[in-house]
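From the pipeline queue, job 12 of 40. The input is one protein chain; the requested action is below.

Action: predict structure.
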Amino acid sequence: MKKSAFLIAPVLALGALALSTSPALAHDGTNTNYQANLAAINGSNASGSVMITVDGDQATVTEKVSGLAAMFNGAPYPHVQHIHIGAQGTCPDMSADTNKDGVISTTEGAPFYGGIGATLSTSGDTSPAAGTDLKVAPSGASYTYQRTFALDAKTADSLKAGTAVVVVHGLDPATLSATAQKEPSDLVPSLPLAATSPALCGTLKAMPAGAPGTGITTPAPAGPDMGLLAAGGGLVLAAGAAYATRRKMAA
């Protein structure tokens, strides 16, 4: 892998995986919180959580991840990340590895989580067209991400339907099989397979309706969702603070 090819990539669309954008949503004066625990894929050993607060056509994303691939050729490793939509709304298991190289590539995982609805970039474009732009991807082994942007109707509909999935891409090449280390990216052939393959994945679920920024009015009953809500507590507060600040500035 060459540094110039890996770290200085042009803005590229994802072809068939990139879904077209739709008109913005009308503001209805209400907001909804969605949360996901991000679990490791492809043996990344990473973890994270993400909260999205939707208010009309505006989405505030607050995310914290750790344990990702840290460096490449002396520079922080760029991790492109997206809200994927339009499929089953689930994260793939190793049965998705159809070519049996030991890696679930982005296209192999697409039947589970779908194409790109929104790119979680650090600046500029948030459409599918920015999906593989390494220059605006968060970078390093751990990072906290927060951004507010206009949400298109298709992505909003997928959130409401429970089929929106956050996927963070970028694996440590050294952890891949010898075969996979030699393979080019299925999205950008000038990059290695590791650069665009999924490292973290989590399905976004709506949190209970309630006070702005918390989504919780009464203790939830014990069950499989309690761990998810507890793990997202810090992100709920962070997303709520961002929401309140944005409304104050708008006023």
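Job complete. The CA atoms of residues 17 and 115 lie 4 Å apart.
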